[in-house]
Amino acid sequence: MPTMTEVEFNDFKAFIYQHAGIDLAPSKHVMVASRLNKRLSYYQLASYSEYFNLVMDPDNKDEFQLMVDLLTTNETYFFREPKHFEFLKQEILKRWRGREFRLWSAASSSGEEAYSIAMILAESLAAKQWQILGTDLSTKVLLKAQQAVYMTDRIELLDQHLMQKYCLKGVRTQENTFRINERIRQRVRFKQLNLMKPLPPKIGKFDVIFLRNVLIYFDNETKKKVVERIISALNPGGYFFISHSETLSRITDKLDMVKPSIYMKR
Ligand SMILES: C[S@@+](CC[C@H](N)C(=O)[O-])C[C@H]1O[C@@H](n2cnc3c(N)ncnc32)[C@H](O)[C@@H]1O
User: Fold this and answer.
1) Which ligand 1 atom is at minimum distance from the Cα of 210?
2) Do the strands 206-210 and 101-106 form a parallel or antiparallel pair, or are they unpaired?
3) Does residue 164 fall inside a structural domain?
4) What is the dihedral of CA 159, 118, 222, 225, to 10 degrees?
5) CB 3.0–4.6 Å: which of 78, 81, 97, 122 could bond 158 by disulfide?
6) How far, in Å, CA of 48 to CA of 117, rounded?
7) Which pLDDT score is estimated for 98?
């Protein structure tokens, strides 16, 4: 197995920073090498610089996306940070009146966050109109989100009642899996969106935006640009959720903190 030199690591680091805003610390050297190693084996390449040159060739767009997928970290699970879902239910949805409710799970990963929210919306808004947009940079996780099939392990925080109402248990060879039901899936759309790029003009406005567990990968300058861009799509009075392990201190003056990790747009 070839070793990744410091120069090679720095090429990948500079690339993913420029493309996705992801700021890889030097301590991620081994992780990057091991994630990309299988692609070197696949092409039978002798060095990481050969692979770098291969993905930078404009004719290799699919491999380029595959490399981006490998350099993102997609850890997620149903009802992660449960207090956010409680706040959504008690403080936002109970008071919701009128037109269609629109929510954006920006950096949705494989969809667990968007579908957790969808179950809460289905419970709280009943017959009212609502829709969710889930977006991510990685096409691999977006495909998983669209398929909406998950393993039955790591669902400790998914309530049994919601599981029975909105999920279909797999049978026979699919025994350890479940699928989000059609009623929920039809209200949740997934699309590729790079937070580093201008927003698509037709994205519209949202009442709530979840941007959780992605700002940790960005430096302050990138955080400012990304947050500014995302909240331009938030309605005044709309809510913005980040993770409890993240902070918006000195990032924007357009949001007021309602609770730690929950903000409202002025
Ligand atoms: C750790 S996951 C967070 C998933 C979910 N929001 C949660 O809190 O469980 C971070 C996600 O951010 C995505 N991501 C990283 N940089 C991005 C960018 N520039 N544009 C869009 N998504 C990005 C990654 O692909 C990954 O799926």
Assistant:
1) 6
2) parallel
3) yes
4) -150
5) 78
6) 40
7) 78
- Asked whether residue 210 falls in the same domain as residue 130, the answer is yes
- Catalytic one among 11, 35, 179, 189? 35
As for ligand 1, residues whose beta carbon falls within 6 Å of it are 20-22, 72-76, 80, 107, 109, 113, 136-138, 141, 194-196, 212-214, 217
pLDDT band at 103 (very low <50, low <70, confident <90, very high): very high
Annotated active-site residue in 69, 136, 207, 212:
136
The predicted-structure confidence for 21-35, as pLDDT tens digits, reads as follows 999 999 999 999 999
Q: What is the pTM of this model?
A: 0.97
What domain range includes position 30? 6-71
Share of the chain above pLDDT 70, in %: 100
Please report the atom of ligand 1 found closest to the CA of residue 195. Answer: 20
As for how many domains the chain has, the answer is: 2
In this structure, what CATH number is given to the domain that contains residue 114?
A: 3.40.50.150
Cα-based angle 219, 222, 224 (whole degrees, multiple of 5): 110
User: Do 121 and 99 share a domain, yes or no?
Assistant: yes
Determine the residue of 22, 70, 72 to mutate for testing ligand 1's pocket, defined as the one with the most ligand atoms within 8 A of the Cβ atom: 72
Query: Would you place residue 154 in the very low, low, confident or very high pLDDT band (cuts 50, 70, 90)?
Result: confident
**Is the residue at 47 inside a domain?**
yes
**List of residues 6+ apart from 5 with CB closer than 8 A:** 48, 49
In this structure, the answer to whether residues 88 and 162 fall within a common structural domain is yes
How many angstroms separate the alpha carbon of residue 127 from the centre of ligand 1? 31
pLDDT reading at 172 higher than 80: yes
Mutate to test the pocket of ligand 1, among 133, 135, 136, 230 (most ligand atoms within 8 A of CB): 136
CA distance 216 to 20: 13
Same-domain check for residues 101 and 228:
yes
